[in-house]
Design goal:
alpha/beta; binds ketopantoate; Rossmann fold; N-(1-d-carboxylethyl)-l-norvaline Dehydrogenase, domain 2; about 25% strand
Length: about 325
């Protein structure tokens, strides 16, 4: 399949390499005018171990084993390749989606499906009004990767990816979930993509601001110091999710967050990296989106509001790169 990926960040490159391994022809659309670039993928396999704690309970331990580096060469920024693409995958940050789609909109063939995959929520309104006829799908992934430099990515954690239709024209595109599954398993089709998007938002509301503010690895949040704040964040998120129609409990969300903290213990969250590198963060589409929806439902979310303010303050203290 001829595929164009918008955005050559860690997640875009990770999918590009895995889709290329399946024989798909990958072209990138980036903010540079380079006609091609290489990517070296430092992939990993993840195994789960069960270890017995002192109190007799069994705890899961996640072990990532690195694989030998693999080099890929991708073409990029060729407007004709966009027109020929049978699939567009948008992996830019949430706040870049609008601009990225505007840049290529006139060149996308009318029936080409567009998959939008970013942390957070809140781009849907713009996408709905801008792309009226195209089949639009949203995706959310728990795969973790980071760029060590412009040409190297490390795949640091494995997790599920969900794909689902956003508009009527995208109904019946469930075979794309299988295509993604073949490339980087597991990937499933979800009949209501907002549900996994909310689940991921909940995880990001808990992990991202705290790791950005305290400049720590995800695993640090497992220490008792963060117990109360994580519990409070989960309570607030669960209340908003329930008001949105999702049957979650704060306890269940907290367990999920704990599992992700454990599975990604050695990782630096994307928001940690954005603050560390003095870049704009996705806070307005993560905690900010939660606050917006909380207001609609008349729900107080003081802890999330505090975290949002703290991250905004950190952002103001650096020049956007
Ligand atoms: O999605 C993530 C992120 O860093 O944005 C988590 C799940 C927190 C993994 O680091």
């Amino acid at each position: 399949m001829q595929i164009t990926i918008l955005g050559a960040g860690a997640i875009g490159c990770l999918w590009a390499c895995h889709l290329a391994k399946q024989g798909h022809n990958i072209h990138f659309w980036t903010r540079t005018d380079k006609p091609s670039f290489p990517i070296v993928l430092n992939d990993c396999v993840q195994t789960k171990d069960s270890i017995q704690e002192e109190d007799g309970t069994h705890e899961k331990n996640y072990i990532q084993t690195p694989l030998a580096p693999e080099r890929f060469d991708f073409t990029s920024n060729n407007i004709q390749s966009i027109a020929k693409s049978e699939l567009i995958i948008v992996t830019v940050k949430a706040f870049q989606v609008e601009q990225a789609l505007n840049d290529i909109f006139d060149h996308i063939a009318p029936h080409t499906p567009i998959i939008i995959m970013h942390n957070g929520m809140g781009t849907q309104q713009h996408v709905k009004t801008r792309l009226v006829d195209h089949p639009i799908l949203y995706a959310t992934t728990s795969q973790a990767a980071f760029k060590t430099d412009k040409e190297q990515i490390n795949h640091t954690g494995l997790g599920p990816t969900w794909l689902g239709a956003f508009n009527q024209s995208a109904q019946g595109f469930d075979s794309l979930a299988e295509l993604f599954h073949q490339a980087l398993a597991p990937c499933g089709w979800h009949h209501d993509i907002n549900e996994p998007l909310w689940q991921k938002l909940a995880i990001n509301c808990a992990i991202n601001p705290l790791t950005a503010i305290h400049q720590c690895q995800n695993g640090e949040l497992a220490t008792p110091k963060y117990h109360t704040v994580l519990t409070q964040v989960c309570h607030e998120v669960a209340a908003v999710m329930q008001a949105e129609g999702y049957a979650v409990t704060a306890k269940k969300l907290r367990q999920t967050v704990d599992t992700v903290i454990k599975a990604t213990a050695a990782n630096y969250s994307s928001m940690y990296q954005d603050i560390f590198q003095q870049r704009k963060t996705e806070i307005d589409y993560i905690t900010g989106y939660l606050i917006t929806r909380a207001k609609v439902h008349g729900i107080a979310v003081p802890m999330n509001t505090q975290l949002w303010q703290d991250v905004k303050l950190l952002e103001q203290n650096h020049d956007d790169k």
